[in-house]
Amino acid sequence: MGSLMAARLTQAMSSSSGDTPSPIERVLLYGRPSAHLDAIRTNGLRLTEMDGRKVSVPVAASSDPADVKGSDLVVVLVKAWASGEAVAPLAPYLTRDAVVLTLQNGLGNASALRTALLHDGVRPHVWLGVTTQAAIRTAPGAITHTGDGLTAIGRRTPEVNAQLRDLATQLTGAGWQTVAVEDIHRWVWRKLAINAAINPLTALAGVPNEVISTDAGLRHAATMIANEVVEVAKARNVTLNPQQIVAAVDEVARATGANRSSMLVDIESGSRTEIDAINGEVVRQARRHGIRVPINELMTILIRAREHALHADGVVADEAPEQHEHVTSDV
Predict the structure, then answer these.
(1) Which strands make up the sheet holding 151-154, listed edge to edge?
(2) Beta strands 142-147 and 134-139: pairing type?
(3) Given 54, 69, 79, 191, which residue is catalytic?
(4) In the predicted model, what is the mean pLDDT of residues 93-102?
(5) Domain 2-183+319-330 falls in which CATH fold?
(6) Model pLDDT for residues 31-86, shown as the tens digit of each residue
(7) Measured between alpha carbons, how far is 43 from 246 in angstroms, rounded to an integer?
């Protein structure tokens, strides 16, 4: 996902003309050292579009946090469990005027980023966002865009200021359809409910997303999971309509069809999943409010057990390189 956004911003910057200069001055894909970044630096990013077209995008890539200095915007697209560790090296190079935007799954990412980015009493602004864009890495230096959709961004407070609106406009202009919203916390909980319902079930059953909407048993389980999330959200003063959430789970499962959820991919590759930030966080929030969420708790226990079993078998991989990717830009 970080690579996809870097490609879109780079394409927008490169396509501007002298008459209409791009507001984007620089785009950088930052991540830990990896074969993926090496391949991009050597040959550019090989991007397969949803219609099958293949393009090469000259994305600038770096593993040196000092290269992030001067960035106005940092978009964080790493696994939730890696948030603090991934951004901490950037803290000395970001000013209080910079914006750090999380488009990650689950809850707690913004808090982890704020903590990790505090440096000498100063930290940048941290904004929240959710996206239904999707991409997979097929080889070092190569990704495929597998799903298009809407991105919503917002601030901790409900005010939609000019800076937030401008960012939404710039991302949309770069081919990443984005809206600035007042109720970003509702958007975050809505996506949490969808992820909580689809990801662990597909991971445990070993099935693509569409099966959640076609298999009666899995659809019933997804409904119970989603309804539990709605109850916890209500206790957190976030109102979600349970019928709309269940309908959204169905819609996402059908729309993403043959796609495999990120949690299924993590289980198959032996990588660490985001279960703690998704169903696990639902369980933690529920306990704070004295709410029972037995299905979310069961999903958390089973996915953790699966992870531990893979670890015991010696097949757990190091985290994938994309889990330490950020996109930075000067706008």
Answers:
(1) 61-62, 26-31, 325-330, 73-76, 99-102, 125-131, 151-154, 178-180
(2) antiparallel
(3) 191
(4) 97
(5) Rossmann fold (3.40.50)
(6) 999 999 999 999 999 999 999 999 999 999 999 999 999 999 999 999 999 999 99
(7) 44
3-state secondary structure of 321: helix
Give start-end residues of each CATH 3.40.50.720 domain in the chain. 2-183+319-330
Whole-number pLDDT of residue 328: 64
* pTM for the structure as a whole: 0.91
Amino acid, res. 287: R
Q: Which residue has the tokens 């998704």?
A: 278
Separation between Cα atoms, residue 169 and residue 147, nearest integer Å: 21
Q: Provide CB contacts within 8 A for 251, sequence distance 6+.
A: none
- Contacts of residue 229, Cβ cutoff 8 Å, sequence gap at least 6: 189, 192, 193, 196, 197, 240, 245, 282, 293, 296
What's the CA gap between 313 and 25, in Å, rounded? 48
Nearest to residue 139, comparing CAs of 36, 50, 271? 36
Question: Residue 60: which of 32, 30, 33, 87 has the closest Cα?
Answer: 30
| DSSP helix, strand, coil percent of the chain (3-state; round to 5) | 50, 20, 35
Helix (H, G, I), strand (E, B) or coil at 285: helix
Which one-letter amino acid corresponds to residue 174?
A: A
> By mean pLDDT, which of 75-84, 229-238, 252-261 is the weakest?
252-261
Check if 191 is active-site: yes
Q: Find tokens 């919203």 and name the residue.
A: 181
Which region holds residue 59: left if phi is over 0, alpha if psi is between -120 and 50, else beta? Answer: beta
Fold of 185-312: N-(1-d-carboxylethyl)-l-norvaline Dehydrogenase; domain 2 (1.10.1040)
Residue range(s) of every CATH 1.10.1040.10 domain in the chain: 185-312
3-state SS class at 224: helix
Q: 210 — alpha (psi -120 to 50), left (phi > 0) or beta?
A: alpha
3-class DSSP assignment, residue 326: strand
